[in-house]
Amino acid sequence: MNFWRLIFRNLVYYRRANVAVVLGAAVGVAVITGSLAVGDSVTGSLRDLAVARLGRTAFALTTGNFFRESLAADLARPDEFPKARPVPAVMLEATASDAESETRVPQVTLFGVDRRFGAITDPADAFGLPFTAAALRPATRAAAVSRSLADDLNLRPGSLLLVTFVRPGLAAPDSLFGRRKRTEVLQTVRLNVARVLPEAGAGQFSLKGDRPRPRNVFVSLEWLQEQIKRSGLANVLFVPGVGDRVDARGSKVGDAEHDKEHTLAPAMPGLQSVAPGLERLNAALARTATIDDYGLRLLVGKEAALESREMVLSPEVVAAAEAAAGQAGLRYSETSIYLANNITRLDGDIRGPTVPYSVVAAGDFASPFAPLVSLSGSMLPALEGDGVVLNQWTADQLGAAVGDTVTMSFYRVAADGSWATFSKLFTVRGIAAMTGAAVDRTLVPQFEGLTDAPKISDWRPPFPIDLTRIRDVDEAYWKEYGPAPKAFISAAAMRDIWAGGQDGRPAETGWVTSVRLAAANGGATTETDLASFTRSLTMILGGGRGRASVGHATLAFIPVRQAALAGAAAATDYGSLLLGLSSFLVLAAALLVALLVRLSVETRARQVGLLLAVGFTRGAAARLLLGETMVLIIVAVAAGVPLGVVYARGILWALATMWTGAVGSFPLTLHVEPASLAIGGAAGFAVAALAAVWAVRVLRRGEVLTLLGGWRALGLSAWRPRARVAGTIAIISLAGAATVLVLAGFGHRVEATTAFFISGSLLLVAGLAWTWVGLRRAARQPAGVALTIPRLARRYAARQPVRSLLTVGLLAAATFIIVTVAANRQGSSEADLARKDSGAGGFALVGDAPLGLPADPGTAAGRRELGFDPADEARLAGVKIYSLPVQAGDDASCLNMQRPLVPRVVGLPELLIGRGGFSFAEFQPLPPGMTNPWELLNQELPGGEVPAIGDEASVRWILHSGLGGTITVPGPRGDVHLRIVGLLRGSIWQSELLVAQPQLERRFGTKGYRRFLIEGPQQERRGGSAARAAILRYELGDFGFDLRTTGAVLAGFEGVQNAYLSSFETLGGLGLALGAFGLVTVLLRNVAERRSELALLLALGFGRGQVVRLVVAENAMLTALGLGIGLVAGLMAAGPHLVQAGAAVAWAPLAASLAAVLVIGLGASMVAARQAVGDELITAIRAE
Amino acid sequence: MSDQPAKRLVLDGVRKAYATDAGPNEVLRGVSLEVRPGETVAIVGVSGSGKSTLLNIIGSLDRATAGRVTLGEMDVTALEGAALADYRRRQVGFVFQDHHLLPQCTVLENVLLPTLPMAAAGRAGPAEAEELLRRVGFAGRENDFPQHLSGGERQRVAIARALVNGPPLVLCDEPTGNLDRRTGEAVADLFVELAGQRQVMMLVVTHNLDLAGRFSRRLELRDGMLA
Asked: In what order do the strands lie in the sheet with A1009-1015?
């Protein structure tokens, strides 16, 4: 005989009770392990998705500008990176529509590829797309489309497909040369669907992580280049890895383990430093790239001229050109041109002759550059201020002489996209002979539709011109001198013109149209000099920040695979979240284990007493019991861990079905990490062991004789807290609850929601404490009071006060949590949304145009530019449309499961800032005189920080920041630090951060409008709103424009929260079920223990029905007490949510859950009682 | 024969009072007693006279309110913790009225139960347990479970358990209370025989006067004192 044999005997003998303990503990282990496995699954699924959508792509060059397709071959030269094998392609953001219907699908990616693309996805056929010239035959306009797009538009092989995209290479829409008409901005191609791709490989290829089902269209690269007039050019380079992963040298560096090691938390700016080989790859790019690749061209002549394909050179390029010229030993001059609508001589206030549509230039017109020479042959001095030099032709046309005043009028693009004119006065400082710079047409960069026109009347400009004003002499000038400037002004004046004539406001996107280079000795520029210049220029441009920027000339590879893996780390720690949501279930399981072990220990009190009586120490006796329990818990862990995997599967299924709002369309698959299984098993073991240790404690205090007396004697003599102590706790808790409410109500020292929750919790504690007091009092029958069945029921409950309190407490806690959670459900009614301080800000509709509108549809002029039907103006009367520019980035809302590395940023126009609206959770202190928190966006912050406002939920839980925090976003001119100055509550802005529009344009160079808020007339009926929405969709659909109601947007966000609440309710419900199981176990146990007593009542003359009612009354009292305390406390805790607009409490299911528990409890006690009193009387009396 | 040197049991002015709502209820009011090795002492008295209480105090299952109990040189009333457990293990064998056999253990295992807390060396083994069972007339059914035994048979097993560690003192609380007359007499004879053979001190609480007459001494508890 030894300890283990005794343990074995005990385990076998009490197997029924032990099975219950194992089951309870296994539940706890399963829940903990499963929660961790869900977290692993979310992370693993996102990682799988991230890797799958990239195929073999490790690095990508995506500048938005076009570069030579042969750059790929240059990079793959033997002396560069032969193993890198870059793959060129054309990638355009587009919309697609079915040729037969008006259904449009936004966020489509149009790829122009060739056979080399097979190195990115996989070899042909495995993914359904042989990238051969034969498969994508240009002549047939063949296209392969992804399954998701085919489903959206009901496409099959042979279907006709229309794909619309923004013509590449256009000048900025807000400049003189920017095109805004729909027909000029957009291009549509007709395609024949040759193949529908499966949802794998090319079909799910995407560089963007927030599109779980990308909509892709693949066409022949050659054909697409021809369509967009970019033959031989590409705008994206993919660099595949070797095997699973490869650095830029082509060495395999590992697989999944490598991925995990390089899963990063920091934002994009930090990624480059850890991506292996990236630096060398970009260095090679800097060496092999030519100025063509930067969208630049160098016109060679006596003077060389560096121009941009987009008309204007960016400030970065200008700075780089200046430095490169210095390195090459060349003289450098910034030249700019503009078109003057009129040059008019003024005689006082009288307007004299006018020359229409003249090019005006500014620059360095002295040696070694082509000079401006006066009529007498002397060099004209450099211009300053408002001075102007007219060429002789112009001076003759105007009859102007030195000292005369001329006025010039120019176009500028107004904020609404319409054309406005402004004028500037100049003083004639000189007349230039028709030689040198005065007739130099090369000062004007090539501009399709202008410089290539044979006559002025053949112009196709982006701005309006009145051809009736063109005279024969003007055409003659054009014929002889082309676009050669007719007037020359100072650089300061030119900058002012490019800035729209608004003094002091810098030209945001640059003003230099060309950089001229000349040999320092005045001779012609040599090939050597220019080669040196271009080499230096490309090295300077390529050796910058190493980061690609949209709309600018910087070329750089980015580590898309590493970025994807970093983003694949979920924005929310789903493992911890599930663990939190399951916490009550774990607690219920632990309490159940404690309850069952306690019951088991009480049963064996007599045996424990015997062990002590024969010489066991208390410690030895306790170790014996604990040893048994540990064996049970080990078995529970062994069963619970695999059950946890099953639990995880169940949760994933629920996330894909019932709680789909939590994860959207992201596909989740089961991933289980051994570490999680180990942690789950260990944690579950710890929880169950603690519960068992607590349960066994009761034996430590029992005297030997008491224990020998069995559970009855144990129950009577067990130490219990005095009623006085419990009463004190109750009073303190009530006082605390009241105090917290007072603090919240007066002086707002505590936030209301928090205060009510604390009060509710204290009310729960007070309720349980009063229950204890009641049980202790019920244990003593006051003298002289008649004994009734209800009073007898209370006495019975009081005989096992700890057991009774555990039962009440379990039910109360479960009810409290379920009620509190149910009350937090959010839902917004239409009436709520119409309020300006609602989450919708009073807006009915919100629109998105992924391709970007070049003009503002919120103005009549903008709508004209966009080609709206004039009849629509009447239909849109009273509608206010706020058009907002958007800097592309990741969705920062809870709808994006992945971690947003670079959040999206939206620019708010001053009109919207002044309007205000929405509701703030908190904001920084307002400066004196400021009453509108939105005005904080216009502040100037130290250190160049940009004030930003975000939704509280996104800023806190997704971006992990807060009020006063800083979020860094990469910009074209360096990192932009956004300081959070305000947090919105429950708004439609959860996907992005908000800054003032001028800040967005200045810091990011963002152009075009992509987000729209539509505010209808007051009292508009739903039909009217729908009609206006239809108009906007029709007119702007080609830009991918789509509208959603603000209610739908909020519902999407609330859906996530409500999905989490649903999951918490369900898991809480499981906990309640577990609690109900515990309740039933206790009830049955109570009845079984009292069989002899109940039989005695029968022997004394009680009817069977009376005895059953007695048992049911006791249990009904405990059940109702538990549910009642939990309900009252829960309603108190959820008070603020219940009374506020938007609460969507599902009372019916809540009531059903609680009613079910009541019914189960009463039913179980009734069944048990009937069974107990159904036995033979004497057998029952003798039963033990 | 007890495995230990001869010791005397001495009670000196032992008192026991229970607290009630109406004030302390003194059950024992100064009991003094001396028992020598080999003696069989019957303690009789009416119900509620404190017989079991006295036995429980001697066996350290209960605490005296005042007075002293010594076994040899050992002050039983001052023992705590491990010393107390050792006393129960090695100095006392207790036979309960309800025998308290573990239903999940065999007869042999029940007899060996008190040996578990003992160190391996010096611990009685199965052979000794079987010998004891033979001595109490229970040979050949070592592997039976208690629920298959009659009342008398269970009591015999309980006696063997009480003797397995060779204690000098055996306390029996109404050992024949649940037995028929014939079985009870047989058990009583067994007590006398074992006491003589093993030179143990045997204190038996009983309300059966005939049974009490079989022992070497008969003491009556009346009004909390031994008469």
From this structure: A880-884, A1009-1015, A845-853, A1042-1045
Contacts of A603 in chain B (CB under 8 A): none
For the domain that residue B186 is a member of, what is the CATH number? Answer: 3.40.50.300
- Residues on chain B touching A12 (C-beta within 8 angstroms): 104
What would you report as the CA-atom Rg of chain A, rounded to the nearest whole angstrom? 39
| Boundary residue ending a domain (A1000, A1035, A1066) | A1000
The closest CB to that of B117, out of A9, A620, A708, belongs to A620
Report the C-alpha gap between B90 and B124 in whole angstroms. 11
- Give the Cα separation of A435 and A370 in Å (integer): 9
* Residue B40, strand partner residues: B202
Query: For residue A488, what are the β-bridge partners?
Result: A361, A389
Is A165 part of any domain? yes
pLDDT of residue A779: 66
Best of B113, B143, B147, B172 to mutate (most A CBs within 10 Å, chain A): B113
Q: Distance from B99 to chain A by nearest Cα, in Å? A: 10
Question: What part of A 703-742 touches B (C-beta under 8 Å)?
Answer: 703-705, 708
Residues 48..67 of B with a Cβ closer than 8 Å to A: which? 56, 59, 61-62
* A3 and A67 inside one domain: no
Q: Answer whether residue B1 is part of any domain.
A: no
Do A203 and A334 share a domain, yes or no?
no
How many angstroms separate the CA of residue A573 from the nearest CA in chain B? Answer: 49
Q: What is the pLDDT of residue A598?
A: 76
Mutation to test the A interface, candidates B95, B105, B145, most A Cβ within 10 Å: B105
Which ranges of A503-549 does DSSP label H, i.e. alpha helix?
527-542
Structure tokens at A460: 């196709």
Residue A183's CB is within 10 A of a number of other CB atoms, namely: 10
Domain presence at residue A1073: no
CB contact under 8 A, A616 and B117: yes
Number of domains in chain A: 4
Q: CA A343 to CA A423: how far, in whole Å?
A: 10
Q: Which residue has the tokens 């029709």?
A: A1034
Can you give the pLDDT at residue A889?
87
Residue B20 domain-assigned?
yes
Given a contact cutoff of 8 angstroms between Cβ atoms, the answer to whether A455 and A477 are in contact is no
Answer yes or no: is A135 within a domain.
yes
User: What is the count of structural domains for chain B?
Assistant: 1
Q: Record the tokens describing residue A337, joined without a space.
A: 């041109």
Task: State residue A213's pLDDT score.
Answer: 84
**Enclosing domain of residue B59:** 9-226
Q: Does A1155 reside within a domain?
A: no
- Which residue's entry shows tokens 């007396």? A709
Please tell me the predicted confidence (pLDDT) of residue A265.
29
Q: What is this model's ipTM?
A: 0.81
Nearest to B109 among A1, A606, A610 (CB): A1
- Report which DSSP code applies to A1025: H
Other Cβ atoms less than 10 A from the Cβ of B56: the count is 23
**Parent domain of A377:** 292-442+483-535
How many residues are listed for chain A in this entry? 1184
**A620 in contact with B, Cβ within 8 Å:** yes
User: So what's the pLDDT on residue A136?
Assistant: 56
Q: Which residues, given as ranges, of chain A have pLDDT below 50?
A: 124-131, 133-134, 242-274, 504, 545-553, 783-784, 1182-1184
Chain-centroid distance of CA A78 in Å reads 42
| Residue B43 pLDDT class (50, 70, 90 cuts) | very high
A13 to chain B: nearest residue by CA?
B104
Q: What is the model's pLDDT at position A747?
A: 57
Q: Is the minimum CB–CB distance between B96 and chain A shorter than 8 Å?
A: yes
Q: Do A1 and B113 touch (CB under 8 A)?
A: yes
Judgement on whether residues A225 and A178 belong to the same structural domain of the protein:
yes
Of the listed ranges A68-77, A722-731, B1-10, B118-127, the least confidently predicted one is B1-10
